[in-house]
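Late entry, evening session. Most of the bench is empty. Finally got around to the prediction I had been postponing all week. Sequence below, unchanged from the version circulated by S.P.
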Amino acid sequence: MTTVSDRAAETLTVLRPDVREAAENADAAVLRPEDQSQLGQADRARIALRVALVNESPSYADSVAVALDDAEVVADVERWGELPEATQALLAHCEQVALDPADVGADEIAELREHFSPAQVVTATQVAAYASFRVRLESGLRLVAGAGDGPASQAGITIEAGAAADGFALSTPDQAFPSMRWVSRVVSGGDFTETLKLDSGVLSAQTLLREAIMTGHGALDRADRELAALATSLINGCGYCTAVHGKRQVELSGDPLTAVVLAEAGPAAIADERLRAVVDVAGALTYTPAALAAADVRRLHAAGLDVDDVHDLVAVSSMFAWDNRLIMTLGNAVRS
């Protein structure tokens, strides 16, 4: 009999081999690590279940709930009183990371630190951010597979790029995407890598997955991958990723306008139909729950992207659901 886990694994077979292997390794590192001294497998599954539920992903919820004896309690917020206080705090934090990482600040991290060590905070946040990636990856790939024939979704009103700023001058790329530094809320004086090294196994797996998705030999042009990362980061409100990937998109594309227009005037100001479709679809996958539909996939095909291009695009937007959540919650980005 085919299980939920089997179906999830089948969904990933359409990915590039390097991305698929890295995604499978990341799944094991986050949810089933050999060393569970920082956070047990049951707590990891509880977090993943809450993330799946707020993302309205029943298939992923079912796949992680099988590891729990208290899945019904975790699924029902009104029954959380049956759980230990620390577990309630853990679930509340991770649900907020999934729903709106912009609302997780220093105070929220401090509250979680009343129950957990810095390493445990990092691990829990990694689980929540990873599950946010996984639900989008699976749902997006299923939509690509089942898009079929039919009408494509339509973009909003597109205006000429020259009028994008509606009377104000656009910034230069250096102005729009300034150098940023990141200050940890978990490790005093620590940078991003130092903070994530508190769970080095996940950091290693995550880094390999990001590299495969963003720089591997995929179908989608690397500049378009960076544009999708930028679109995702703008919706989530991650200033650090916006600066890094906006600047990289400009460098890779040789186009000093599109990324700046997106950041300062929004998607409707992008005149190029293909780039606008990339931005809109990446953005639709960003929301919690995702707003992506089969008609959006058909729109990408109509704009000239083949199925492998779209697989790459789904992977990029999903990856930045993970990265944005770590950067926005575990620390704070400021201009260098």
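Two things to note before I forget:
The beta strands are 180-184, 331-335.
The radius of gyration is 20 Å.
Will write this up properly tomorrow.
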